[in-house]
Amino acid sequence: MLFDGKEVVLSSDRADILRHMLLMCSKDSPGTRVTFRNYFGSYGKDGEVTNENFRQRISRLRSKMDQIGLKDHIIQTRHLDETAYYFDENLSYMVLYRVDDVVANEYISLHSSN
Question: Of 50, 55, 63, 95, which residue is the least packed, with the fewest Cβ within 10 Å?
């Protein structure tokens, strides 16, 4: 992740959580532990993500983002009586990219038909 000339490397799971937050969450519809359950594997009773585990993952993402000055752009709120998060919509733009075989193959197959 690059911002204002600073760079930090995110693990794929943290990048996936951030991407989901950017694309699917908003002030009106913030992400809860249920929203993000697909990014956590099986935790707790019945494979449910615990509140503590959810907050810890977001805290670790925010810590990484703090290294480049973006920590305060992940906003914590309450939604449906749960802790929830969304990305501050006042940031003008963000570009996410991943370089791996899956993304490259999707790009190639999408553009090879043109």
Answer: 95
- Counted domains in the chain: 1
Q: Six-digit token pair at 10?
A: 């995110």
Spatial separation of the C-alpha atoms in residues 31 and 17, rounded to whole Å: 10
Q: Which residues have CB under 8 Å from 9's CB, separation 6+?
A: 1
**Cβ within 8 Å of residue 71, ≥6 positions away:** 62, 63, 65
User: Residue 20 belongs to a domain with what CATH number?
Assistant: 1.10.10.10
Which phi-psi region, left, alpha or beta, contains residue 27 (left: φ > 0; alpha: ψ -120 to 50)?
A: alpha
The contacts found for 91-98 with CB under 8 angstroms, 24 or more apart, are 94/3, 94/22, 96/1, 96/15, 96/18, 96/19, 96/22, 98/12, 98/15
User: Quick check: 28 and 51 in contact, CB under 8 A?
Assistant: no
pTM of the predicted model over 0.85 = no
Q: What is the pLDDT of residues 10-62, one digit of tens each?
A: 888 888 899 889 889 999 999 999 888 888 765 555 667 888 989 999 999 99
